[in-house]
Design brief:
Blueprint: H1 3-14, H2 19-26, H3 30-37, H4 45-55
Amino acid sequence: MSFGQNLQFLWKMRNKMTQEELAEKMGVSRQTVSKWELDTVYPEMDKVVELCNIFSC
């Protein structure tokens, strides 16, 4: 699984939140979350750590 596929799985299955809700929690735009999911860009390390905290992984 790619980073984007894993991210989609986590936010849809674990927390059932929307892209917009995740973006709001992360302090980024919904478009940024979309780009992460499409593997066109990757988050900076501090955002990866924040994602791990949100999804307890």
